[in-house]
Amino acid sequence: MKRKISMVLFLCLVWNAILPVCLSTEAKAAKGKVNISAESAVVMDVQSGSILYSKNMNKKQYPASITKIMTALLALENSSPAETVTYSGSAVLNLESGASNIGLKVGEKLTMEQSLYAILLMSANEACNGVAEHIAGSIKNFVKMMNERAKQLGCTGTHFANTNGLWMKNHYTTAYDMARIASAAYKNTTFARITGTKRYNIPKTNKNKDGHALHNHHGMLYANSSYPQYVYEYCVGGKTGYTSKCRYTLVTYAKKNGMTLVSVIMRAPNHPSMEPNEYTDSTKLLNYCFENYTRYGIQDATTDEINNQYLFTKFSPYFKHSTSMLSIDADAGVILPKGVPLNKAQKKVEFFDSPQKGKDGKDVIGAVTYTYNNERVGGSDIYYTQKQIPMLNDSIDMSQWFDDAVEKAKAEPFPWKKAVIIIIFVLAAGAAAFLVILRIRAQKEQRLRRNRYKQTRKSIRRSRGRRNDRRPYWK
User: Fold this and answer.
1) Which of 126, 164, 279, 351 could join 366 in a cystine, given CB atoms 3.0 to 4.6 angstroms apart?
2) pTM for the predicted model, two decimal places
3) Selected residue with higher pLDDT from 319 and 413
């Protein structure tokens, strides 16, 4: 019977050890069965940057008009929507024959927001040039900004040579780099709103009394009259691209089950009238990822943990979740293969030596990172925001507190296990000593009782002897 129980326990331990590996292997095998026509592709989780699918994702390709995602991102980061863009002759006229445009005229004025609608919905090449000149003074200067921003985003296989993606030999990127750029862009709420718009009308301008009627070129978002079958119910935006040398490229954003994914297709060979094509490839990949991966939200639990365990131990009575000075991204999550629980991912929390400036001007003081099978599957920066809390400001020097808190965060955790073992040992030793003392006292009392008994017996015998020695008085 004992052998059977031992064998069952052994098998359970082995199963728990190999289950994550089996699930991961199964997911990778399933990924290998997804056949697509494009030469390169990748699917990335927008929030975490986790790669859920890849095919030649680091191969350099010509991006065509998906380049305009970077153009729009830079415009949003370096201007306001209400700024007026005046289109010059160099912006409007220096286009190759057949290049996408909305017919802007020299001297025409649009707002920056209207220009971005023209870029992202109708792929207007002249709008890209006009926006570049407005922000950087020249297209050349703007292209430098594009390459600098790509490096900031971690792109290593990218070099831009123009603002619109018209073919140039030294204008290239990779599917992975493009996914990085597209993810960063989608985190901008204005970009997300514009790219997800199906139709938009620019009202009358100084050069066009009818304005400009725009519609989204992305066939998975807005039904093309010729190919309505490619509409995808989870699509929330994206950008198309094509030149004869670049072939078909496509960036698609999709949301389902709490996940926001971006799919990048590069060098798909066929026209949308033929299958497979960039649309069928994207649909197949997104469906695969939604069906085979699960997203776990970590915002609430992680915020509570870093406030209570790491930095706020000393001042925890003063803080609640809603008033804490530490936070992570509201949409922070972890993406894992279906069937793999969150506790199978390895979590690491680290704090920096000094704060760093992050997005929205927040101080980034650390990061929480989740990995699974040695790959990053989620996480977030840790932000520090000094809030006006009178009780704290009246009694605590926050700058000194921050230094103390960081020092405390770096300190080794209290060795609770060793402390408990020592306490148990001390208590056991004390109990043993107490028992020994009781034993000694009991033995001492027993000896005293024996001695008193012996003394009493002797006294009795002496008394009897004296009585026997007496003689009757009448003799």
Assistant:
1) 351
2) 0.72
3) 413
